[in-house]
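Batch job 17 of 40 flagged for manual review because the log was empty.
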Amino acid sequence: MKRPILRLALCSALLITLAGCSPDRLPFVYRPDVQQGVILTQEMVDQLRAGMSRRQVQFILGTPPVVDTFHPDRWDYIEGHKPGRSEFRAKRLTVFFEGDRLAAVQGDFTPADANLRRSGSS
Protein backbone atom coordinates (compact mmCIF):
# COMPACT_ATOMS: atom_id res chain seq x y z
CA MET A 1 0.00 0.00 0.00
CA LYS A 2 2.88 2.37 0.66
CA ARG A 3 4.42 1.88 -2.80
CA PRO A 4 1.57 3.47 -4.84
CA ILE A 5 1.45 6.47 -2.50
CA LEU A 6 5.23 6.88 -2.78
CA ARG A 7 5.06 6.68 -6.60
CA LEU A 8 2.22 9.18 -6.68
CA ALA A 9 4.19 11.57 -4.48
CA LEU A 10 7.32 11.24 -6.65
CA CYS A 11 5.34 11.75 -9.88
CA SER A 12 3.60 14.78 -8.40
CA ALA A 13 6.92 16.28 -7.31
CA LEU A 14 8.41 15.66 -10.78
CA LEU A 15 5.42 17.27 -12.52
CA ILE A 16 5.53 20.31 -10.27
CA THR A 17 9.26 20.67 -10.90
CA LEU A 18 8.86 20.42 -14.70
CA ALA A 19 5.93 22.83 -14.67
CA GLY A 20 8.20 25.51 -13.21
CA CYS A 21 10.77 25.16 -15.98
CA SER A 22 10.78 27.56 -18.89
CA PRO A 23 9.88 25.77 -22.14
CA ASP A 24 12.60 27.75 -23.93
CA ARG A 25 15.29 26.01 -21.92
CA LEU A 26 14.07 22.44 -22.11
CA PRO A 27 16.24 20.58 -24.65
CA PHE A 28 13.50 18.24 -25.86
CA VAL A 29 10.95 20.93 -26.79
CA TYR A 30 10.54 21.42 -30.56
CA ARG A 31 11.07 25.01 -31.77
CA PRO A 32 9.83 25.52 -35.35
CA ASP A 33 11.43 27.88 -37.85
CA VAL A 34 9.44 31.10 -38.26
CA GLN A 35 9.42 33.03 -41.56
CA GLN A 36 7.83 36.50 -41.61
CA GLY A 37 7.37 39.15 -44.25
CA VAL A 38 8.21 38.89 -47.92
CA ILE A 39 10.67 36.25 -49.07
CA LEU A 40 13.52 38.06 -50.81
CA THR A 41 16.34 36.52 -52.83
CA GLN A 42 19.35 37.96 -54.60
CA GLU A 43 18.01 36.53 -57.88
CA MET A 44 14.84 38.62 -57.50
CA VAL A 45 16.84 41.80 -56.88
CA ASP A 46 19.12 41.03 -59.85
CA GLN A 47 16.07 41.16 -62.16
CA LEU A 48 15.42 44.81 -61.28
CA ARG A 49 16.47 47.41 -63.86
CA ALA A 50 16.47 51.21 -63.70
CA GLY A 51 13.38 52.66 -65.35
CA MET A 52 11.04 49.72 -64.63
CA SER A 53 7.43 50.62 -63.85
CA ARG A 54 5.89 50.07 -60.42
CA ARG A 55 3.85 47.16 -61.79
CA GLN A 56 6.98 45.44 -63.12
CA VAL A 57 8.74 45.84 -59.76
CA GLN A 58 5.66 44.54 -57.95
CA PHE A 59 5.56 41.53 -60.31
CA ILE A 60 9.16 40.64 -59.42
CA LEU A 61 9.22 41.43 -55.68
CA GLY A 62 5.56 41.09 -54.77
CA THR A 63 3.28 43.58 -53.08
CA PRO A 64 5.25 45.73 -50.64
CA PRO A 65 4.21 45.12 -47.03
CA VAL A 66 5.20 48.66 -46.03
CA VAL A 67 4.24 51.73 -48.07
CA ASP A 68 4.91 55.00 -46.28
CA THR A 69 2.04 57.44 -46.81
CA PHE A 70 4.44 60.37 -46.38
CA HIS A 71 6.87 58.96 -48.98
CA PRO A 72 4.76 57.29 -51.69
CA ASP A 73 7.82 56.90 -53.94
CA ARG A 74 9.45 54.53 -51.46
CA TRP A 75 8.56 50.85 -50.90
CA ASP A 76 10.08 48.87 -48.02
CA TYR A 77 10.35 45.09 -48.14
CA ILE A 78 11.25 43.33 -44.90
CA GLU A 79 12.02 39.64 -44.48
CA GLY A 80 12.44 38.05 -41.06
CA HIS A 81 13.62 34.54 -40.27
CA LYS A 82 14.04 32.86 -36.90
CA PRO A 83 15.46 29.34 -37.01
CA GLY A 84 14.25 27.19 -34.11
CA ARG A 85 16.85 27.90 -31.46
CA SER A 86 18.86 30.63 -33.21
CA GLU A 87 18.59 34.41 -33.16
CA PHE A 88 16.13 36.38 -35.29
CA ARG A 89 17.61 37.68 -38.56
CA ALA A 90 16.07 40.38 -40.72
CA LYS A 91 16.83 41.52 -44.26
CA ARG A 92 15.59 44.78 -45.69
CA LEU A 93 15.20 46.14 -49.20
CA THR A 94 14.03 49.67 -49.99
CA VAL A 95 12.93 50.54 -53.52
CA PHE A 96 12.81 54.19 -54.65
CA PHE A 97 10.79 55.55 -57.56
CA GLU A 98 10.86 58.82 -59.45
CA GLY A 99 7.34 59.24 -60.75
CA ASP A 100 6.34 55.78 -61.94
CA ARG A 101 9.88 54.58 -62.74
CA LEU A 102 12.36 52.64 -60.60
CA ALA A 103 15.26 54.92 -59.64
CA ALA A 104 17.25 53.22 -56.86
CA VAL A 105 17.48 50.21 -54.54
CA GLN A 106 19.02 50.21 -51.08
CA GLY A 107 19.37 47.58 -48.36
CA ASP A 108 20.89 44.19 -47.64
CA PHE A 109 20.89 43.13 -51.30
CA THR A 110 23.09 44.53 -54.08
CA PRO A 111 21.30 44.94 -57.43
CA ALA A 112 23.04 43.75 -60.60
CA ASP A 113 22.17 47.03 -62.33
CA ALA A 114 24.79 49.53 -61.13
CA ASN A 115 22.40 52.42 -61.93
CA LEU A 116 20.17 51.30 -59.05
CA ARG A 117 22.73 51.35 -56.27
CA ARG A 118 22.22 54.01 -53.63
CA SER A 119 24.37 54.64 -50.58
CA GLY A 120 23.40 56.24 -47.29
CA SER A 121 19.89 56.50 -45.89
CA SER A 122 16.81 58.43 -47.00
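Reviewer: the log was empty due to a logging misconfiguration, but the result itself is present. Residues 63 and 82 are 22 Å apart (CA to CA). Unflagging and moving on to job 18.
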